[in-house]
Amino acid sequence: MNWPKETIITKTAIGITLVGSMLFAWELFGLLVTHINSGAIWRAVEHGAFIAFVSFIIYSGLVYQFTRLGHFKRQLIHRRASQNELDAFAIDRIAPPAVFLIPSYKEEERVIRQALLSVALQEYPNRRIVLLIDDPPNPISPNDQASLAATRRLTMEVQQVLDCEANKYREAMIAYINRKSIGDVGDLLRERETVVQLYTQAAQWFRNAASRYEVTDHTDRLFVEKILLERSYRYLEIAKNIRNSSSHLSMDRLEREYKRLSSLFQVELAYFERKRYVNLSHEPNKAMNLNSYIELMGRSFRETNHADGVHLEPTPPSDEMLNIPDADYIITLDADSLLLPEYALRLIHILEQPQNVRIAVIQTPYSAVPNPASIVERIAGATTDIQCVIHQGFTHFDATYWVGANAVLRKVALADIRVMGSERGFPIAKYIQDRTVIEDTESSVDLIARGWKLYNYPERLSYSASPPDFGSLLIQRRRWANGGIIILPKLFRYLLSRPFKQSKVGEGIIRFHYLASLAAVNFGLLLMLVYPFESSMRSFLLPVVCLPYFYLYGRDMVIIGYRASDLARVYALNLMLLPVNLAGVLKSLQQAICRRKVPFGRTPKVRGRTGVPLLYLVVLYGLLVLALSSFLMDMLHARYAHATFCLINSAFFTYIVVRFIGLRSTVEDIMSSNFLRSIERKWATLLAQAASATVNRLRARHAES
């Protein structure tokens, strides 16, 4: 990638946008003054609303362009830590303890197993994995009982598979260290050959695991290629390099290789169920699932039976008690995510540098799993990959947000934002706020308010599956749209707090946009569809101002592996999500007014199609009808600029209902909707009542006769 060239292109686009915006503003405000002076108050109000919407669109475009510039500037100066530096940090000394926490709620066994293996096979030595099962602990349904039992067995099954392999490498390391300690390392060539054989055996294990793994979709394919096969190729390459080395390996180098081999499969796995214990939080969201376990870390407990159920009570450490080890770093991972083997090693290495002691959260914003079968998943994944570029640019302006699916958290930083609350009369600790359903975003503001920083590592080291259909995408994006407005006051308090720094201006512009853009852009777009801003839309400067943004967006699509034509499909996806985003924003307003938490909407992570609620189908088809009727009315009244806008959007809405949703799926969702079922039940009841009344009348007549 030619980073300097992309930097120049981005700066040019920013310049065109700024000059065009100033000329456009001069024209728009001149027209506004004309309306006011002529007494055309309604025209002035109409024009003012258009100015407000277009100003936010230009603001959003500039944020994208500046963050793109920041991303490329970071790439220009980025230097990967060498393998020797990583070995000196994690192999030659005891690496800081890290725990991987994987929250899980009624996930598919296949999905959880992949996540467990992707973290169990991390190259970070001092690691522990805990699956946080959030299913009801005593399910009634036989299917739920079987699913929960299978989930509970997973950690033990993975542990057994890895332990069988780990023992061989651990014993080889111990034997070498013993020989070295008594001065019995005589033949370095023999030791070198032993290391080569061990690496070859490790490579063969990964290759065998890949050949046995059943590949059914693109996620499985990514897992096999990135987690299993690439490791096999890498260890064969290491074995080849060691064997062909012209010089003898020193005893210290041999010890390093033995230690690295011993850590490949050496890992501890466990599971934990907070809902088994009455005195832990039972709030149905991911944040409280994580909080419940984090609060227990570094302490010992025993289970005690009370009248209301089982409690966890603190107790001195004992082999018979529940001892929960502490850790310096907590790595959170959604069950549908995959981490590349070097994820933890590289990110914790960054955190351990002296200049980074105030970094609380480090992450690689997740990428979409490539080559999906569904067009919805492919285009939703494209927006995810574009967001990865934007978030990397956020770090350039010190405006990073924690984006949730996976991250490395410094435990002392979480302790700094810990607050106490109560639930059902029990004291409950909160490290990650659950006031909104975008808990990671609010916790980001809490951390920066306490002087901590967040950081995006400028590489792609994690992947997360995108929803494969509109039903599951709806659940995810409605949750993402909910909460930004609620967090804004907290952000303003941070930005206005002392001491004031000039860097806060750029940071504030980007942070505010991240929280407010969904509400402003979607309400503005709906207003543009409904109301004909004819005179305001006629300026030729409007496309001039918008063109650099669309050009860069399309260019980025090609850079990250998509087609330039996918830019139009991304616009269609955003139109499809218009009612979804507005619903999320309205939920935020409802929560702000009523001061009641909104239920956490979990994105389904199972195979099969998720149905779309009837309301959203009605709204989307209604928007198609609205765009077409607006086009016809505009043509009748010679409003050609707005007519063109409505015609283009009509074409996109038609594409949405045919390609993204599907006419057959629409019929299926309508027929299976609760609304139709309730009508069927009412009609069935009425028919039954009518039949009963008819039978009674016939019986009465028969009795009279």
Q: Enumerate the strands of the largest sheet in spatial order, edge to edge or round the barrel.
A: 3-2-1-7-11-9-14
Q: Structural class given helices, strands, pairing?
A: alpha/beta
Determine Rg (CA atoms, Å).
Answer: 30 Å
CATH architecture of the largest domain: Alpha-Beta Complex
Overall form: globular
CATH class of the largest domain equals: Alpha Beta
Counting DSSP E segments of at least 2 residues, the number of strands comes to 15
Poorly predicted segments: none
How many angstroms does the end-to-end distance come to?
97 Å
Strand content: 5-15%
**Number of contiguous helices:** 24
Helical content band: 55-70%
Q: Any idea of the CATH topology of the largest domain?
A: Spore Coat Polysaccharide Biosynthesis Protein SpsA, Chain A
Number of domains: 3
CATH superfamily of the largest domain: Spore Coat Polysaccharide Biosynthesis Protein SpsA, Chain A
Biggest sheet statistics: 7 strands, mixed
Round the mean pLDDT to the nearest integer and report it.
90
Report on the architecture of this protein.
- The model has no long low-confidence stretch (mean pLDDT 90).
- The strands form four sheets. A seven-stranded mixed beta sheet has the order 3-2-1-7-11-9-14, sandwiched between helices. Strands 5-4-6 form a three-stranded antiparallel beta sheet, with no helix packed on it. The protein has a three-stranded mixed beta sheet with strand order 8-15-10.
- It has helices spanning 3-37, 41-77, 83-90, 109-120, 142-181, 188-212, 218-243, 251-263, 286-296, 343-351, 375-396, 411-416, 439-449, 470-480, 484-496, 503-530, 534-537, 541-559, 566-576, 578-594, 614-636, 640-661, 663-671, 674-704, and strands at residues 98-104, 127-133, 268-272, 299-306, 309-314, 322-324, 329-333, 337-339, 359-363, 367-368, 406-410, 419-423, 426-430, 453-456, 462-464.
- The chain contains 24 helices and 15 strands.
- Helix 2 runs parallel beside helix 18.
- Helix 4 (109-120) links the parallel strand 1 (98-104) and strand 2 (127-133).
- It is an alpha/beta fold.
- The protein folds into three domains: 3-77 and 473-667, no CATH class; 83-366 and 403-466, Spore Coat Polysaccharide Biosynthesis Protein SpsA, Chain A (Alpha-Beta Complex); 673-704.
- The protein is globular, with a radius of gyration of 30 Å.
